[in-house]
Amino acid sequence: MASKNRLIVVANRLPVNRVKKKGRLAWETSPGGLVSALKPFLTETGGSWVGWGGSPGKAPTPFTHENIQIRPVSVTAEQVEKFYAGFSNATLWPLYHDCVRTPQFHRRWWWPYVDVNRQFAEAAAAEAKPGDTVWVHDYQLQLVPAMLREIMPDVRIGFFLHIPFPPLELFAQLPWRREILTGILGADIAGFQTPQGARNFSAACKRYAEASGTDTKLEHRGHTVVSKAFPISIDIENVEQAVTSKEVIDRAEELRKDFASKRAGERKILLGVDRLDYTKGIEIRLRAYEELLRRGAHTVDDCVLVQVAVPSRETVGEYAELRAFVERLTGRINGEYGQAGRTAVHYFRRNLDYKELMAFYRAADVMLVTPLRDGMNLVAKEYVIAKTGEERAGTLVLSEFAGAANELGGGALLVNPHDVDGLAATMDVSITMPESEVQRRMGLLQRAVRKNDVYGWAHGFLEALRS
Ligand code: F6P
Predict the structure, then answer these.
(1) Whether 419 contacts 399, CB under 8 Å
(2) Does 265 have pLDDT greater than 80?
(3) Out of 285-289, 389-393, 455-459, least confident range
(4) Residue pLDDT, tens place only, 9-52
């Protein structure tokens, strides 16, 4: 039954993908925790999702999918280039990730960002009625809260940033810093992955947007905005169900045989799973593994690195360069250290389907999550839960600069992902760690992840927004 106060989700991507089924085009629910977490709230309230279908041009007319009203927003080819590839992914993305690549500031990208944000705000206003709750997501849509408040002052507006909010010194570089902050300040609640992100946002607002108040509560033009951490999580039950199924258990066993067996005994499997993105630290991870083999502490007889790299944002120049670099490095390591039947690095440039991914996690002895900066990193949390009921636990090597380190620092081996020698030394520790210590750490990790799932996250945010 639809209730009077509906939830409207506004996100760059729609929760559905266009797929071909039996020769016909159809919509299919996108995989991923965010969609499944928000679905119950949307269906319960007869809510809507406003987003972009992923291809340029005129958007399909609004439709209903699994009880959710879908309102696609049109984004032209020029806007895809300037709003999406340009301002979102070549200006904001590197700026918000510690400037690990140089952000590009182009006025020709700014105005399309404003225009597309306005299109989203107008589409949200067309869906919302007074008293409804609108939840805006992520860095592509930071202007939407204020634009929407101007059109509809009587809705509750939440904003959640899935990526880090940078420290003041870095954010200060942005020529449009005031406009971005004023955009987010249109929300009633601004949510971040970590308390540090919330503090960075408050500090920037006080410095550049004439806001006053504390780290957690801001006053701006007579409007109060709560700035708070809501660390996102995963669909724990879904992961558990998959990894305890016979299909995934058998497949994990098969993968272990394929990757890990050698003539006598077994090799330790070290696994990395990342979007092929320069923030993920893939190239430094590969160099650290190369260093480990170079030192002779380990050889391809004891260990193997499996790297899954999911293609992403390939129209952005830096991503194409990263791919070429990672592939050269992989070739170099295999050329130097591989042996017949024992490849040093197995590199897969593809998106694994959900069950296959779960089997990879389950098979891995060591999970390498070493981003240079990351809002949260859900791979780390998924790996931990993927080891449910598994006798051979696993070790998580985790970057200090991932949001997940706040919650998982107790059980993981924390590393500075820029430090090749330090990372190589930690890989060594993870390969030789006594089983009892692996188990002890995994116990701590499981307890930490199980404190909150993605449903708890969504519920917590919406409760705060509606109270
Ligand atoms: O982490 C930020 C994020 O936008 C996610 O929401 C998304 O899954 C991922 O990056 C991929 O982004 P894109 O929509 O650009 O493919």
Answers:
(1) no
(2) no
(3) 389-393
(4) 999 999 998 888 888 888 998 877 788 889 888 988 889 999 99
- Strand-pairing partners, residue 219, are 212, 224
pLDDT tens digits for 304-321? 999 999 999 998 889 999
Q: Confirm or reject: Cβ of 313 under 6 Å from ligand 1.
A: yes
CA distance 286 to 293: 11
Pair 164, 209 in one domain: yes
> Exposed/middle/buried for 4, CB within 10 Å: 0-12, 13-18, 19+?
exposed
Identify the DSSP state of 43: H
The answer for residues whose C-beta is within 8 angstroms of residue 233's C-beta and 6 or more apart is 33, 378, 381, 449, 452, 453, 454, 456, 457
State how many domains the chain has: 2
**Cα–Cα distance for residue pair 204/192, rounded to 1 Å:** 14
Q: Mean pLDDT over residues 393-419, rounded?
A: 97
> Domain range for residue 98?
7-232+454-466
Q: What's the rounded Cα separation, in Å, for the pair 320 and 6?
A: 42
Residues 333 and 265 in one domain: yes
- Judgement on whether residues 203 and 317 belong to the same structural domain of the protein: no
Which residue shows structure tokens 């990342």? 274
162 is catalytic: yes
CA 352–ligand 1 middle distance (angstroms): 16
CATH number of the domain bearing residue 95: 3.40.50.2000
Residue 57, exposed/middle/buried by CB under 10 A (0-12, 13-18, 19+)?
exposed
CA of 11 to the centre of ligand 1 (A): 10
Active site residue 374: yes
Options 65, 98, 115, 162, the catalytic residue: 162
2 falls within a domain: no
pTM score, whole prediction: 0.96
Bridge-based pairing state of the strands 223-229 and 212-213: unpaired
**Side-by-side strand order, sheet with 395-399:** 345-349, 303-310, 268-275, 366-369, 395-399, 413-415
How many angstroms does the Cα of residue 165 sit away from the middle of ligand 1? 15
Whether 104 is in the pocket of ligand 1, judged by its Cβ within 6 Å, is no
Distance CA 330, CA 323 (A): 11
Residue 3's pLDDT is 54
Residues 318 and 460 in one domain: no
Q: Does 280 contact ligand 1 (Cβ within 6 A)?
A: no
Locate the ligand 1 atom nearest the alpha carbon of residue 137 and give its number. Answer: 6
182, 150 Cβ separation under 8 angstroms: no
Half-sphere exposure of 296 (CA within 13 A, CB side): 0
